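FAQ

Q: What does a record look like?
A: Structure on top, sequence underneath. For example:
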């Protein structure tokens, strides 16, 4: 049918923009000890933060993340991934509660001291990290209007690595170093970027066969199915209780460019502790 309404047209445009923007947005990453980044956080109130409960799964030698079907704080038979993990399925982790923080980031080149052009990224953290964002909102107001500096403390691969996040003094770090342009996140869909949303039927297929049914996608759609997600967190993350204006420390973030080693379809999660 060639006829369509304005609402139909607007819906198609919005979907195309969401797919395009999802492809543009990367992941926040500091690789080595002493690495620094300036950031603007796309958050004026805690309600701006996005949360999800996700399972980390192994399928055909790759890691993926899939949204849990159970409502927050409940356990029912609605999510077959929860049931599979509880029954001892080695390819499924317990659901972890995550917060996805939208940021503009400028990375510092340690060799030259120069700062990169700003780029849009997502920082995936345990949901409890939202308390730290709430503290920053209380201290500084709209985080889109201030610069923060994040520093890595720990060598690459060190599971004891921490990160400090401090107010970037305007006299040293000029506001124009990162313009408050968050247009890359217009119509951004976190489920097309950082994890899958699957139907109960698709999840049942995975649990019984070890892989999801093939899904056809259009050129305008962006989906995390095309690449593995970051490795699951394997170290416990302590409760953070910073004082006002004090440096905060957090555990290592997910690594967006992590490449898994070859593995069997049923990846063994036994002995691994996931933070949620």
């Amino acid at each position: 049918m060639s006829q369509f309404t304005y609402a139909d047209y607007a819906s198609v445009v919005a979907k195309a923009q969401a797919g395009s923007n999802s492809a543009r947005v990367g992941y926040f990453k500091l690789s080595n000890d002493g690495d620094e980044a300036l950031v603007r956080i796309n958050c004026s109130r805690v309600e701006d933060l996005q949360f999800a409960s996700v399972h980390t799964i192994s399928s055909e030698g790759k890691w993926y993340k899939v949204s849990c079907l159970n409502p927050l704080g409940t356990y029912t038979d609605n999510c077959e991934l929860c049931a599979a993990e509880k029954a001892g399925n080695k390819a499924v982790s317990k659901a972890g509660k995550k917060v996805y923080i939208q940021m503009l980031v400028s990375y510092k080149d340690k060799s030259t001291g120069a700062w990169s052009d700003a780029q849009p990224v997502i920082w995936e953290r345990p949901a409890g990290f939202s308390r730290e964002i709430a503290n920053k909102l209380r201290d500084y107001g709209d985080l889109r209007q201030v610069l923060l500096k994040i520093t890595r403390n720990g060598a690459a691969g060190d599971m004891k690595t921490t990160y400090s996040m401090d107010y970037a003094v305007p006299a040293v770090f000029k506001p124009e170093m990162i313009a408050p342009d968050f247009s890359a996140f217009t119509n951004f869909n976190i489920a097309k970027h950082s994890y899958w949303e699957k139907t109960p039927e698709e999840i049942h297929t995975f649990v019984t066969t070890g892989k999801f049914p093939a899904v056809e996608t259009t050129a305008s759609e962006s989906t995390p199915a095309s690449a593995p997600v970051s490795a699951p967190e394997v170290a416990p993350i302590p409760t953070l209780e910073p004082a006002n204006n004090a440096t905060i420390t957090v555990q290592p973030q997910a690594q967006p460019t992590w490449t898994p080693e070859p593995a069997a379809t049923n990846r063994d999660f036994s002995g691994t502790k996931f933070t949620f």
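Q: Is there anything notable about this one?
A: DSSP finds four helices and nine strands in the chain.
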